[in-house]
Design brief:
single chain, alpha+beta, Immunoglobulin-like, five-stranded antiparallel β-sheet, four-stranded antiparallel β-sheet, 34% strand, elongated, binds 2-acetamido-2-deoxy-beta-D-glucopyranose
Length: 290
């Protein structure tokens, strides 16, 4: 009986530990997923903290901040008590910073400033190589860099009944979302065409047109998936005559032709009525007979 109780207690304990482990893992994952994406030109801090059983003897270890972009890169090196810039990749020269006085307590955070678009999608990790033990991989992350899009401009073309939304200077490729107000919005009615152009400076330009027939208001949202930011513009569609300029021209021509026909007919009738009578002018202007 007593043995049974001990078994139960052991099972309970291991179950409890498992749940605790899972929760701790989840918390860690949330914490590591919390690293914010960077913005071009700004500084970026990558928090990396390693719990140590005893302070590190910084004079005897090497620490490598390294990663993978298109190729293997060395971002920063600390070895035998000081920073060593000999092997640092060219693209990171003068842009990195660590906190040497905090290394012994396990704070391996790295700062990069300024960020460039070439840093986008860089995989980073810290390698801790203590002199006497095998090296350890710590704190892996991916760095994403955004450039913010300018507020979009909307231009309305009333002849073609289209709205054109354009913006530039952003990175990476954005998502364009139109929203329409007024009129009946049936699916497929407001056909949208979007072109995204890659510019020489590494940013994207966007031009998107939408059919706006029957609408009162249009909004164009440009969403940057890396900065998680949306820039948008809204524009009223000016009221327009129910008939298009083409139809108006045709109607004016028809009216002019009808008037000419009436004048001509009136002239002929006048001539016939006068017939054999005294020769009088058939004046269309006054229409009076003396
Ligand atoms: C880094 O900064 C130093 C001193 O300011 C300068 O001499 C060196 O040219 C810079 N290196 C790069 C790659 O910008
Ligand atoms: C690590 O050092 C940086 C720079 O001093 C500091 O901002 C950060 O709070 C430190 N992190 C921890 C976990 O102590
Ligand atoms: C960071 O950028 C990546 C790639 O664009 C994106 O998938 C992720 O959602 C972004 N994270 C945040 C917090 O916005
Ligand atoms: C993006 O921002 C919105 C609020 O503006 C937030 O609710 C959402 O969680 C963010 N997405 C990511 C991936 O961080």
């Amino acid at each position: 009986m007593k043995q049974h109780k001990v078994k139960m207690a052991k099972r309970f304990l291991s179950g409890f530990l498992l749940v605790f482990y899972c929760i701790a893992n989840m918390v860690l994952q949330v914490l590591s997923a919390n690293i914010v994406n960077g913005t071009r030109g700004a500084s970026w801090i990558w928090p990396c903290h390693h719990t140590l059983s005893e302070p590190l003897q910084t004079g005897e270890i090497s620490i490598y901040w390294q990663g993978q972009n298109n190729s293997h890169i060395v971002v920063h090196v600390y070895t035998k008590g000081k920073e060593d810039f000999k092997y640092q990749s060219q693209t990171f020269k003068n842009r990195t910073k660590i906190f040497p006085d905090q290394l012994s307590s396990g704070n391996f955070s790295l700062a990069i400033e300024p960020l460039t678009l070439r840093d986008d999608q860089t995989f980073l990790e810290v390698i801790l190589a203590p002199g006497n033990r095998p090296s350890e991989k710590l704190c892996q992350t991916s760095l994403y860099v955004a450039a913010l899009f300018q507020k979009p401009q909307i231009e309305i073309n009333q002849t073609e009944m289209t709205a054109a939304c354009s913006t530039k200077g952003g990175y990476p490729k954005p998502e364009i979302r139109w929203s329409f107000e007024g009129g009946v919005s049936r699916v497929g009615q407001h056909e949208v065409q979007t072109t995204v152009t890659y510019e020489e400076d590494g940013t994207y330009s966007v031009h998107s047109t939408a059919n706006i027939t029957g609408l009162q208001k249009v909004t164009c949202d440009v969403y940057n998936p890396t900065s998680n930011q949306t820039v948008s513009s809204t524009k009223d569609v000016p009221p327009h005559s129910p008939v298009s300029p083409g139809i108006t021209a045709v109607i004016i021509i028809i009216i002019v032709v009808v008037i000419i026909i009436i004048i001509f007919a009136a002239y002929r009738i006048c001539k016939q009525v006068q017939g054999d009578g005294p020769d009088q002018e058939c004046s269309l202007g006054s229409g009076t007979h003396p």
